[in-house]
Amino acid sequence: MFFSYFKVPLYSPWDAEIKSYFHRDRNHCIPLLSKSHIISGFPNNFMTPALEHAIKVRAVEYANTSGSSNQVLQLVRYKNWWSGEFERSYSYCADMEGYSITKDRKALLTTAVCSVTSCYLDNPVYEQRIQGSILNLNTHPDPTRWTTDDIQRIDTEIAQFRPGLLEVDPTYLMIFLAKRVVFGLGAPTYRPRYITSSYEFLTVGARRMLEAAYQLPVFSMFGATEFGVLFLQDSKGSYKRCGYETVLELHPFIPERNIYELIVTSWKNELMPLLRYRTGDLIEVSAHTDPAKIFLPSDDVEVLKLHGRLSDSFSIAQGEVKTVADLDDMVGRLGGFIQQYQLIITLDVVSFKYVPGPLSSAGEEVVSIERELRSWFGVEYRIETVAVSFIPPESSGKFRLVKSELPSVAQ
Q1: Contact 180, 149 (CB under 8 A)
Q2: Which domains does the chain have, with CATH numbers?
Q3: Matching SUPFAM superfamilies, A to Z (predicted)?
Q4: pLDDT tens-digit readout, 273-307
Q5: Could you tell me how far CA 397 lies from the centroid of its own chain?
Q6: CA 281 to CA 246: how far, in whole Å?
């Protein structure tokens, strides 16, 4: 496994340490590496003879991360890399037994800016958005502006394509369902066999709406453009590790609550292997998990909850740190009829913007949320709740649940 890292210029300072690292030796001197380390000097910092040859024979494809962390990471990999990655990942979920991305169809409802398989700068027709067995449904950069025609087109295309799997950004599918109610279009025409959620944080409210509409469990899939899929949830809510050619570590964030930043070492993309890469993503593990362990591909990691981006965490009164999952648990518990929300924190004001569900004003729920936020932030902040008709996505196409002007709690 460690041979993938030799001859990679970025990792040459630690050639002598890499072998001992893969033998779980904690006495190595390899630092944690961030996006900035990889961005600097790309692609020369990964220019091995294998990459040089692959580029020469045009066997590679290029991609970018979404930039939701405010840093866009350029990537290079062999063509059709994601096909094998998805095929392996789905096999870890017993509930999806029998589904094959090479034999069955999949429809994607995600950002139109870019998905892991394609990017569009124009408005392609149905046939142009089919790549092999995959249909890309969205052509609009902002789903909050979908019209009746957009909703009907998406519904018709899903029914026409008849995918076994509907893979979604959960907020996009939630908006699709809410607009169907507003436009009086009724229930979706077609129900797939499976629904997986990825691309951004799956809120309690989104899961509730999606599962009610389709009468199916939604399998949360955790991963990233740069390292593929790491965990896939099953119908019992358990996260199954997709450990192929990946080593994981836990970096303390709120260790007293068993919340850690996930550190990834992965050679799945052999042209651009990652070494002790800081993902910026937070997970909560079971109390009996050894946080000092280096988890090799065959080792289980008992993940209890995904806590969102480290950069979206924030401090409240007495210095306590809250994560996106903490906020969402509270909103999900108190605001059952809220469709979308966004918490905006300035130096003296905490503003909770929300979109009520299509058949609710969410009045009583918001009073409870305001009370809870006041208990979090104390008297030093003015707490306000603002009902809005929509919350637009960021330029990446993703939606921010937390925006803060305060100093980052990132470590």
Answers
A1: no
A2: 2-79+244-310 (no CATH), 94-225 (3.40.50), 313-404 (3.30.300.30)
A3: Acetyl-CoA synthetase-like
A4: 999 999 999 999 999 999 999 999 999 999 999 99
A5: 12
A6: 16
